[in-house]
Structure formats: C-alpha cells, structure tokens
Sequence to fold (111 residues):
Amino acid sequence: MNKIEKITDEQLISLFQNQNIDKELKKSIIAEIDRRDLEKITSINKEIDFETKISIMFTSYFSFKKHLEKSSQLLSQGNKKAYKQYWRFFIYGILFYTIMLLIAAKYFIKH
Fold:
C-alpha cells in the first residue's frame, strides 16, 4: 500500500493545492485524486461579513461556547480563512473589553 493512499481526502486536496511540491509527488497525488474521484471537493475561502465581525467582537467575553461551536463549524466546512478571521476578531473583542476594564478601573480608583 502506497503511503499516499493512507491520507484523508482533505489532506490530499491540500497537498494538491500546494505549489511547492515536486513533479513526481504531484503526479502521484493526481493519480490518487483520480482514483478516489475527488474533483468535486474544493476548499471554501469566504470571508466573514461585517455584522458578524462586530457581533463576535462584542460578545467575545460573554458567550465563549457559542464561539467555539461556530468556529468549529467553519473549520469543518473547510473554510480556513473565515476560521482565522473569526478567532482574530474574537481576540480583538477580548482586547477591547480588557482596555475598557482598565480605563474604568483607572477612573474609579482615582475618584
């Protein structure tokens, strides 16, 4: 059994999309894709809309479980770009609330 036959379909597609693979390996990847009939599988690279980004930022402190479920759903759909954006805006929200907390603490400590 060839080692390339042991990898998953998603791994095979991502290897096929990699531009840094030598020609011999690329040929065996194409042969395996043809054997598995995987032409229909493509990864989704959609961005998150503006309203969703804002809602992620303002709910990042309060509904962590919802964010885990939504980001896992994006990753399972193969949308790595939206997954990375999701967590980037989640971190922006955490930073926003931390800064607001520090500003509020500074105000109340002085007075």
